[in-house]
User: What shape does this take?
Amino acid sequence: MFLLGYSKEARKRRDQLATGVIVALAGFILLVLASLLIYICVQGISAINWEFLSQFPRESMTKGGILPAIVGTLYLALGSMVISIPLGFGAAIYLSEYAKQGPLVSVIRLGVANLAGVPSVVFGLFGLSLFVTTFGFGRSLLSGCLTLGLLTLPTVTAAAEEALRQTPGSFREAALALGANRFQAIRQVILPAALPGMLTGAILALGRAAGETAPISLTSATAYSPSLPDSPFNEAMALTTHIYNLATNGANIAGTRPQQFGTSLVLMAIVLGLSLAAVILRARLRRSRKW
Amino acid sequence: MSEKEPKISQDNRDRPEEPTLASVVSVTDGASLFEEVDEKPKAPLKVPSLEGAPAPAESYEEASLRAIPLKPRLSKAEHGSRFFFLLCAILAMGQMLLIMVFLFTESVGLLFSQGGSPGVSLGSFLFGRDWYPTYPDASFGALALIGGSLAVTVVSTAIAAPLGLGLAMFLSCIAGRRTREWVKPAVELLASVPSVVLGLVGMVVIAPFLQQTLNLPTGLNLLNASLILAIMATPTIASLGEDALSAVPQDVKDASYALGATRWETIWRVTTPAALGGLSTAVILGLGRSLGETMVVLMVAGGAAQIPNSLFDSVRPLTSTLAAEMGETAIGSRHYQALFALGVILFFMTLAFNLLAWYLSRRWRTRR
Amino acid sequence: MVAEQNGFEAAPNGQGGGAGQGDGAGQGGDAGQGGEVIIKADNVSFFYGQFQALKNISVDIMADEVTAFIGPSGCGKSTFLKLLNRMHDFVPGTRLAGEIQIRGTSIYGPEADPVDIRRRVGMVFQRPNPFPKSIYDNICYGPRLVGVNRKADLDQVVERALKAAALWDDVKDKLGKSALDLSGGQQQRVCIARALALEPEILLMDEPTSALDPIATSKVEDWIRGAGMSIVIVTHNMQQAARISDRTAFFYMGQLIEFGPTLELFTSPKEERTENYITGRFG
Assistant: This one.
């Protein structure tokens, strides 16, 4: 008994102190992150109006809008999904449904996980070397989409495989016992059940593609284009590279601050909007799932 | 096993064996023997006759020799679809190989003399301190750039790890369920803020602040870059760390409380040690993210290729060198090759971090 | 025959009909008298990798009867059941020796089409596993696979299958609702109806009531008793086997120890191991 009594007060105080420190730390981080968001919103909102969203830049980017950058980012992000969704879903289906679970599949899975951690600028180098130079696509939307597609492929694959593995094996068993072949079981039963989860991963990847800078600045971006791209072989502006260009080597860095933050806000609205959609979708999915 | 089995069956050759179709097929079928090679022999090989179960009429080896492997029969269309999916998987994985191949082929020329300019030795590339790629007498020493990368990574992690882990502890062990359900997705959302936006904030807000309060010549330096990178890495570490802490079974924590431990003692002495593998994985993945981040360091690290002596020195990490200089080089030039060689270094550094994280998380999983 | 050497009651062809069969007599009566053999297994051994899960099983299962497989867990009863509709094909490293025939045609022979076999042999699993689709689409899944697509035909199939599974009155007004919204017992009967929609020649049931509460269990048991079709049911519950089956097979350590009319097997088992098991001395 006296052993406990010995340090009782001290232990209680230490507990309160540690809890206080952790709560303060957490509060501090959340405060920093929240004020960051608020700062960008406040700085950006004043620049945003209809003209900003619907016009081309004018007078060395100090006037006008960012329409070509918005369009370019949308083309690049959606185009990258054209590459990564079919390939990623296909690879995920192979890994979870066909591959014999063994060392080979573990190596593939490790490779996919590792690729997700390769810096985006390395993907940029790869795209530059493969698509721009070797395939001769030049600096173009096509090269950018292909590069971003490969960049997001591991994310899409890993998320899709996770979703597929969460569908119960009993669905597959039941379909096979009813005389379905493997492909029918996948297409008619497993895929419909896993698809919402797979798409959640794809939306997150879409957001990531839209927010990338270095890979597209190496493979497809241009500082200014007088018209919207009308072919995959055109160079294109993008929101991210536009921000970078205005902030670092524009003709009037200080003078285009409103444009810089306005563009940032538009970019964040796209990226965070997509992420938010994915988060909400995922939460809904978890709640509505009955198996 | 494959060596042993035919021998045994030879010994038993004189026993009567039922001539079935299956036995004829299986003798010529090498696949069944091959299949067994990687299987460990299991106990039931010699089941003790508990409860007086009679010995089977046929020995294990005889039955095994008769047996034919069962395989799903695939139609032509199924073979096609399977092949397509396999192709996707190969592409998804082969990309890793492709990246390495292209990085190597583009950079390997650096080591050899070319058009009169002598090749750069591996030693002088990795350990040279001078990075003057555009001078007439160019020198390609990557050490300062590697040092810059490591410096921002280490400093940013030193800031982000305690913050991220503190937030993880708060979310997992202190906050209520409702708070966690709101705060965790919000934190994850912040992990997806585009880096170029954060770089802009670093330039516009933090740089002038550092310059004025600390009376520095410029606010674009190691500290600034590390602060911004810490903001980026904290949500990643917090989210992964929370997963690790929450994966510790509740009954372990209950046992600690039942012994009279306070909440902090439970967190510090029970939960944290149990989740250590997952927590270190979280920190290493955060580290990897800082190492590979490009735009932030490009915009706020200052850009001087030197090994930093203080927090307020300007640095030029690998990633920002790549992004800044790749636009200005001619394809196939010395400089171009040197930049791809930097890519190789970066690739292997991140690979090492990823493998380390993978190894730790695996070890942790098997231990539980 | 190997089985005969051991003196197993492996193929009780001649003696099934005469014995009193308790409550199974209703539907078993005409089949019992030298009834048709629907599944014939001959010296079947089965391997998971190195592990021999089944040893020299020979058995004749009669048409239009309920046959129960009992035995302690891990005895091979479920493994044998799944061999009957080739579900082991998808498990890597499985091997089979011996011959299994359904109505005289070999199901593992070179001519056999596994997909066709699975359509002829329905299966109901341990846990209810309806697809995350509507009740209607669950029932239609099999018929659609074989090319039934006309709405009127499908409507008819669904109604017939649900009536056969004694579920029609419960769900006829909510066919469009998700099958996952039903209770566990109803879900299992949807799975039965889903299998029946293909009009299988025989229905395999792998511990179909082990995940159900007593009331739902008795409903499924009632259905099995009144189904009047060939059913093979694996159960860990000896009372259940006694209640619903015409014949019972006792498996132990991968071997078929005894097979005979249910009443006989439970009242006067020939093998000591069977007696030990049914009197609860092991298992």
Notes: The CA atoms of residues 140 and 174 of chain A lie 48 Å apart.
